[in-house]
Amino acid sequence: MTTRRRQVALRHVHESMVDLVAVINAPQLDEIILREAGVTLDRPLFPLLVGIQRFGPIGVVELAERAGRDHTTVSRQVAKLAGLGLVDRRPSPVDRRVREAVISTAGRQVTDAIDAARHRLNSPVFADWSDRDLFALERLFRRYVDDLVALAETSREQGGTT
Predict the structure, then answer these.
(1) How far is residue 117's CA from residue 25's CA, in Å, rounded to a whole number?
(2) Residues 51 and 58 sit within 8 Å (Cβ to Cβ)
């Protein structure tokens, strides 16, 4: 049985996640991070490069699904990243018809600079948090994301959507 307090908490978690996604997806934030990192990159390429670094090697279709974009657009954008030397393209060892994108050495340098910029920009947010609170957020947020991923995978296996 779900208590009223639990229903309210679940609604607040959802609202917080919507707020977080809105902040993360704001084009102005990407520009701030890129500027702080000292990186010159077309803003639409930025999340794709980070996604390739995080999830690669990755095919264009999967990257497009993760980014919520059309795969033909993502294919062109990955080609731009490859042209800039930030990613390499290679045949998938599992399915030779699929060309995977993998972060290059130059791309890794860019994503390392972006990670360092994120750290500098986020440090003030957590400056007044206790270690206990920060570590609890880390643990619970990872648990939440892992459970959402598992739910999505189960739903896909059963032919549904999430």
Answers:
(1) 17
(2) yes
Local structure of 30: helix, strand or coil = helix
Polymer length of the chain: 162
Extract the tokens encoding 137: 């957020």
Containing 11, the helix (H) or strand (E) segment is helix 4-24
- Mean pLDDT for 147-156 is 89
57-103 pLDDT tens trace: 999 999 999 888 999 999 999 999 999 999 999 998 888 888 899 99
Residue 100 in contact with residue 92, Cβ under 8 Å?
Answer: yes
